[in-house]
């Protein structure tokens, strides 16, 4: 079954988002009056040179960090008005995460790692659902393995299964392929793409890799905390990675 | 699920907590089991009487033990006559105990502490002690002796009673302990009767006889079964009190140190798991849930350690009871039986202690921000937060204040005051260590700064940059060295001070003291010595002392307990059961003398023919020499003798507590060393890649461990010197001679060497494992 969301509905939106680290002369503006929306059922890549604010964007959009000013909405809920407890609960229910590394709790098995968000929410995970989630990322036979017994790519696939098990409004991925080889990267990106195409999920991915970005529906380029450029259109068309790399190179030269 | 999985996954790093908790619960369980088993028991020599009738039990005015108010001989005889007529009662035996000790070959035999070994012959029936040979004593000058003495029927020997030595003939041998004289002779030596034992006819019901006895003996206590234990001798109550003190000290130390171990290992645990905790926070764990995980983990480890400790403690309780008996802190014949309730209580305490220890770590864990999961490198947090500064500074001020107060504290509060001062200063040193470490490291490594090798540079840099880790590793060393130095130093200082003070007070004087007997007879004391006895007034039992000249005077706190003031008249019941009305002439302020009530000596002797004098001071050396059971000493020898029992007990306590605390903090040292080595795995890999041989990395790790031990030793000494100085000052004030601070060097050196050995061994093991893991 394919869900076709109306193009207007946003999963995550930022309005006038401003984030300043430090005070006085040492103050650094990481996000500068940024307004941006990630529509439901889309795959967006966020790119930019070091210090462009892409990680800050992800952390603020996910409610891991607070904005200095401006607003963030996740699934229509304004994060600014929530305390830490409420934001945690919202994160648990509406947001999934995939990081570059250290995604999994080392002492838990793959299946237990996948169950984690449900158990934290006080729900009893259905064994079948967990099995299905692992099967979807091709790890049905690794359910009882601990992270140390899995390859880096397999660990990232477990992290994706966990990010998707709550059917979140949005999945944030921070350099999910940063520590992987080409083959493993392709598998992980394929899974993220499939989550969007097959289940109508929304994925926001921070990356510096043009090949990874070429899997996205839209690429947003940041510079000095502002949108420097956008590249829309169909994903994975031939030559797209080269096109993204060219844009990045120009951005970094300026 | 998460707590359980976390415990399973990190079994190795929780091993220290587990070991500490196991030991703690084992100690508590053991102490409780021994304590419960050492409860008062019916004296063996009265056990064959199913019903015992005795006077009211009066608690001691000073708070330790109790006494039974006696009847006069005639009242007791009348009451015994009425009791003997009750249905089912075969005999009612008035039981008397008094000082009687046989002298064989010129030496007094039997328990040198027992001032109540003598009884009338009829009392032998109350313990069902049989007459093994010969006949019962029937007249003055005849005794029945314990068959174990090896005496023969018809033997002539010397009997010591309170009057002095007398020639007696052994007419019979008894199958039980004690010296038995004729009932008439017993009534002369002890006119009063504290207890009447009822022997029942075959098949008579003790409860029925007791009920009948209650109607007859109004105002008396009628005891059956376990209730008869109230009649245990005072000496046994004192022994048990001493044993209980040691058990309490052990159990409290176990609780204190377990909290310390759990708190430090959990703190390190949380610090090392920041990233994992951050990950849990990002995937939706609330701060409260994180706190619950940490506490859940503590509870699981606590429960596991509790069960292991319960088994260990139950197994160890028997041998521990045996040790207490051997040390003279429990009565022979103590049987430690496993019981459920004390063990369960110990397990509950263990779990509670684990939760208390993990509480602070749980709070810190809950504050880990979700973003910590995203950070690549673990950056050492600020060395000192404001809370730590505040707590450390407060502990330092408190410790300094207590150390100064130690010098001014009363004698019986001095030891505790010094202990608390040392505890506060230890806590201060542990809390402030992150700021103390860098300058100390620079100081210690100053001579090495020009060295050529990489070693000194690395060791210095590691200890300086990771000040907080270095401090955390040094904390248990501070506690170990601090405890050992403090406890041994206290005993050494006191052992010097008290005899020196006594000898100074008694310079040039000779003293006659008991030798193998519980006290001096009238023949030896010659009417000069203070005569202790026990009297009863206003429902209290009071230690009274007969002196030649003193007016009737009462210690102020005893006067409060009795509710009397100067000029009041007090009705006092003596050992012979007779009452006298006394007018209080004087109150002595608290702490000035140990004597609760001072009476004219002649009055005490009149009412207590078996009272024994303690020591005669200033006696002409020649006078009592040659009498059995008397030794004449000079001032120095007397002072040493006086303090020898105190010193023995002090050493015993100190040794047990040092062994416990050092063994305990040793666990913490192993644990923190191993954990800190584990956390340096990435550094090790970098070192290896930079060209360090495996042997070199091990050497660096060992050097760093030794540096930490050196830091901990320095701080440990620093925290114990002020309380010990305070104590020496207070002692000098009390005994009137200068008292120097004495450290017990063998204990100090042994502790430091043992700590260093343990620390290096733990570090090397963990480092070797860490590097093997990396390459494998």
From TrEMBL, chain A:
<dbReference type="InterPro" id="IPR017871">
    <property type="entry name" value="ABC_transporter-like_CS"/>
</dbReference>
<feature type="domain" description="ABC transporter">
    <location>
        <begin position="12"/>
        <end position="249"/>
    </location>
</feature>
<dbReference type="InterPro" id="IPR017911">
    <property type="entry name" value="MacB-like_ATP-bd"/>
</dbReference>
<dbReference type="GO" id="GO:0098796">
    <property type="term" value="C:membrane protein complex"/>
</dbReference>
<keyword id="KW-0813">Transport</keyword>
<dbReference type="InterPro" id="IPR015854">
    <property type="entry name" value="ABC_transpr_LolD-like"/>
</dbReference>
<dbReference type="GO" id="GO:0022857">
    <property type="term" value="F:transmembrane transporter activity"/>
</dbReference>
<dbReference type="Pfam" id="PF00005">
    <property type="entry name" value="ABC_tran"/>
</dbReference>
<dbReference type="GO" id="GO:0005886">
    <property type="term" value="C:plasma membrane"/>
</dbReference>
<protein>
    <submittedName>
        <fullName>ABC transporter ATP-binding protein</fullName>
    </submittedName>
</protein>
<dbReference type="GO" id="GO:0005524">
    <property type="term" value="F:ATP binding"/>
</dbReference>
<dbReference type="InterPro" id="IPR003593">
    <property type="entry name" value="AAA+_ATPase"/>
</dbReference>
<dbReference type="GO" id="GO:0016887">
    <property type="term" value="F:ATP hydrolysis activity"/>
</dbReference>
<keyword id="KW-0067">ATP-binding</keyword>
<keyword id="KW-0547">Nucleotide-binding</keyword>
<dbReference type="InterPro" id="IPR027417">
    <property type="entry name" value="P-loop_NTPase"/>
</dbReference>
<dbReference type="InterPro" id="IPR003439">
    <property type="entry name" value="ABC_transporter-like_ATP-bd"/>
</dbReference>
TrEMBL record, chain B:
<dbReference type="InterPro" id="IPR050250">
    <property type="entry name" value="Macrolide_Exporter_MacB"/>
</dbReference>
<feature type="domain" description="ABC3 transporter permease C-terminal">
    <location>
        <begin position="249"/>
        <end position="370"/>
    </location>
</feature>
<feature type="transmembrane region" description="Helical">
    <location>
        <begin position="298"/>
        <end position="320"/>
    </location>
</feature>
<dbReference type="GO" id="GO:0005886">
    <property type="term" value="C:plasma membrane"/>
</dbReference>
<feature type="transmembrane region" description="Helical">
    <location>
        <begin position="650"/>
        <end position="671"/>
    </location>
</feature>
<feature type="transmembrane region" description="Helical">
    <location>
        <begin position="417"/>
        <end position="441"/>
    </location>
</feature>
<keyword id="KW-0812">Transmembrane</keyword>
<keyword id="KW-0472">Membrane</keyword>
<feature type="transmembrane region" description="Helical">
    <location>
        <begin position="705"/>
        <end position="725"/>
    </location>
</feature>
<protein>
    <submittedName>
        <fullName>ABC transporter permease</fullName>
    </submittedName>
</protein>
<feature type="transmembrane region" description="Helical">
    <location>
        <begin position="340"/>
        <end position="361"/>
    </location>
</feature>
<dbReference type="GO" id="GO:0022857">
    <property type="term" value="F:transmembrane transporter activity"/>
</dbReference>
<feature type="transmembrane region" description="Helical">
    <location>
        <begin position="246"/>
        <end position="271"/>
    </location>
</feature>
<feature type="transmembrane region" description="Helical">
    <location>
        <begin position="389"/>
        <end position="411"/>
    </location>
</feature>
<keyword id="KW-1133">Transmembrane helix</keyword>
<keyword id="KW-1003">Cell membrane</keyword>
<comment type="similarity">
    <text>Belongs to the ABC-4 integral membrane protein family.</text>
</comment>
<feature type="transmembrane region" description="Helical">
    <location>
        <begin position="12"/>
        <end position="36"/>
    </location>
</feature>
<dbReference type="InterPro" id="IPR003838">
    <property type="entry name" value="ABC3_permease_C"/>
</dbReference>
<feature type="transmembrane region" description="Helical">
    <location>
        <begin position="745"/>
        <end position="766"/>
    </location>
</feature>
<dbReference type="Pfam" id="PF02687">
    <property type="entry name" value="FtsX"/>
</dbReference>
<feature type="domain" description="ABC3 transporter permease C-terminal">
    <location>
        <begin position="656"/>
        <end position="771"/>
    </location>
</feature>
């Amino acid at each position: 079954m394919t869900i076709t969301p109306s193009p207007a509905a946003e999963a995550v939106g930022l309005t006038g988002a401003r984030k300043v680290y430090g005070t006085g002369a040492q103050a650094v503006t990481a996000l500068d009056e940024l307004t941006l929306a990630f529509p439901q059922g889309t795959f967006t890549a966020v790119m930019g040179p070091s210090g462009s604010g892409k990680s800050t964007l992800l952390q603020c959009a996910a409610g891991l960090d607070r904005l200095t000013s401006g607003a963030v909405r996740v699934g229509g809920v304004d994060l600014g008005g929530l305390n830490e407890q409420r934001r945690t609960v919202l994160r648990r229910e509406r947001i999934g995460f995939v990081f570059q590394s250290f995604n999994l709790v080392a002492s838990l098995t793959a299946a237990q790692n996948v169950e984690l968000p449900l158990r934290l929410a006080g729900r009893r995970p259905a064994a079948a659902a967990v099995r299905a989630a692992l099967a979807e990322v091709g790890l049905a036979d690794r359910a009882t393995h601990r992270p140390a017994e899995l390859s880096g790519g397999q660990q990232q696939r477990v992290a994706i299964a966990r990010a998707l098990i709550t059917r979140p409004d949005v999945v944030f991925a921070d350099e999910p392929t940063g520590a992987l080889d080409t083959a493993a990267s392709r598998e992980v990106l394929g899974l993220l793409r499939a989550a969007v195409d097959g289940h109508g999920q929304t994925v926001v991915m921070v990356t510096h890799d043009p090949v990874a970005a070429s899997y996205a529906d839209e690429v947003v380029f940041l510079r000095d905390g502002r949108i420097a450029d956008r590249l829309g259109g169909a994903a994975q068309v031939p030559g797209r990675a080269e096109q993204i790399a060219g844009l990045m190179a120009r951005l970094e030269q300026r | 699920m998460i707590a359980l999985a976390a415990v399973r996954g990190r079994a190795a790093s929780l091993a220290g907590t587990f070991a500490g908790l196991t030991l703690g619960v084992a100690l508590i369980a053991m102490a409780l089991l021994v304590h419960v088993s050492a409860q008062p028991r019916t004296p063996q020599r009265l056990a064959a009487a199913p019903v015992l009738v005795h006077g009211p039990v009066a608690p001691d005015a000073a708070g330790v033990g109790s006494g039974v108010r006696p009847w006069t001989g005639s009242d007791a005889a009348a009451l015994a006559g009425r009791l003997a007529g009750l249905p089912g009662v075969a005999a009612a035996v008035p039981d008397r105990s008094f000082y009687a000790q046989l002298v064989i070959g010129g030496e007094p035999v039997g328990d040198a502490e027992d001032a109540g070994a003598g009884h009338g012959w009829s009392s032998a029936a109350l313990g069902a002690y049989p007459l093994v040979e010969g006949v019962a004593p029937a007249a003055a000058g005849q005794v029945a002796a314990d068959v174990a003495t090896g005496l023969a029927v018809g033997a002539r020997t010397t009997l010591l009673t309170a009057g002095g030595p007398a020639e007696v003939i052994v007419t019979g041998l008894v199958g039980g302990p004690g010296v038995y004289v004729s009932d008439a002779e017993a009534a002369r030596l002890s006119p009063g009767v504290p207890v009447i034992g009822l022997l029942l006819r075959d098949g008579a019901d003790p409860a029925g006889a007791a009920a009948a006895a209650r109607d007859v003996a109004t105002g008396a206590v009628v005891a059956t079964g376990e209730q008869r234990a109230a009649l245990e001798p005072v000496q046994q109550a004192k022994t048990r009190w001493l044993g209980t003190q040691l058990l309490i000290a052990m159990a409290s130390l176990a609780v204190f140190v377990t909290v310390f171990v759990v708190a430090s290992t959990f703190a390190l645990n949380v610090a090392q798991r920041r990233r994992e905790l951050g990950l849990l926070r990002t995937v939706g764990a609330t701060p409260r849930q994180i706190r619950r995980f940490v506490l859940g983990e503590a509870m699981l480890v606590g429960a596991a350690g509790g069960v292991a400790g319960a088994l260990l403690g139950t197994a160890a309780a028997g041998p521990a009871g045996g040790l207490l008996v051997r040390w003279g802190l429990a009565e022979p014949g103590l049987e430690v039986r496993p019981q459920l309730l004390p063990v369960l209580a110990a397990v509950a305490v263990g779990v509670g202690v684990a939760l208390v220890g993990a509480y602070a770590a749980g709070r810190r864990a809950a504050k880990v921000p979700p973003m910590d999961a995203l950070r690549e490198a673990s950056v050492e947090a600020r060395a000192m937060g404001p809370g730590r500064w505040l707590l450390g500074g407060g502990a330092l001020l408190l410790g300094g204040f207590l150390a100064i107060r130690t010098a001014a504290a009363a004698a019986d509060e001095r030891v505790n005051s010094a202990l608390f001062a040392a505890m506060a200063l230890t806590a201060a040193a542990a809390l402030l260590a992150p700021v103390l470490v860098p300058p100390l490291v620079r100081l210690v490594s100053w001579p090495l700064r020009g060295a050529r090798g990489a070693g000194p540079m690395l060791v210095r840099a590691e200890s300086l940059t990771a000040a907080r880790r270095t401090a955390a590793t040094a904390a248990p060393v501070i506690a170990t060295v601090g405890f050992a130095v403090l406890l041994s130093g206290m005993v050494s200082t006191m052992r010097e001070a008290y005899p020196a003070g006594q000898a100074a007070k008694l310079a040039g004087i000779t003293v006659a003291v008991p030798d193998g007997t519980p006290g001096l007879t009238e023949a030896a004391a010659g009417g000069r010595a203070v005569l202790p006895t026990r009297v009863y007034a206003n429902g209290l039992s009071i230690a009274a002392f007969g002196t030649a000249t003193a007016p009737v005077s009462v210690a102020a706190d005893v006067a409060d307990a009795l509710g009397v003031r100067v000029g009041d008249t007090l009705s006092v019941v003596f050992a012979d059961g007779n009452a006298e009305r006394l007018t209080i002439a004087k109150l002595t302020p608290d702490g000035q003398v140990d004597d609760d009530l001072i009476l004219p000596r002649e009055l005490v002797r009149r009412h207590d023919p078996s009272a024994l004098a303690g020591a005669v001071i200033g006696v002409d050396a020649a006078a009592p020499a040659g009498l059995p059971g008397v030794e004449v000493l000079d001032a120095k020898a007397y002072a040493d003798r006086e303090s020898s029992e105190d010193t023995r007990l002090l050493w015993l306590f100190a040794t047990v507590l040092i062994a416990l605390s050092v063994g305990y903090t040793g666990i913490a040292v192993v644990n923190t060393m191993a954990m800190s080595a584990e956390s340096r795995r990435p550094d090790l890999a970098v070192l290896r890649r930079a060209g360090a041989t495996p042997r070199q990395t091990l050497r660096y790790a060992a050097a760093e461990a030794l540096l930490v031990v050196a830091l901990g030793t320095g701080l440990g000494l620093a925290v114990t010197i002020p309380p010990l100085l305070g104590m020496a000052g207070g002692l000098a004030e009390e005994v009137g001679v200068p008292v120097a601070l004495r450290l017990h060097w063998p204990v100090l050196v042994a502790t430091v060497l043992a700590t260093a050995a343990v620390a290096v061994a733990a570090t090397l093991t963990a480092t070797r494992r860490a590097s093997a893991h990396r390459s494998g």
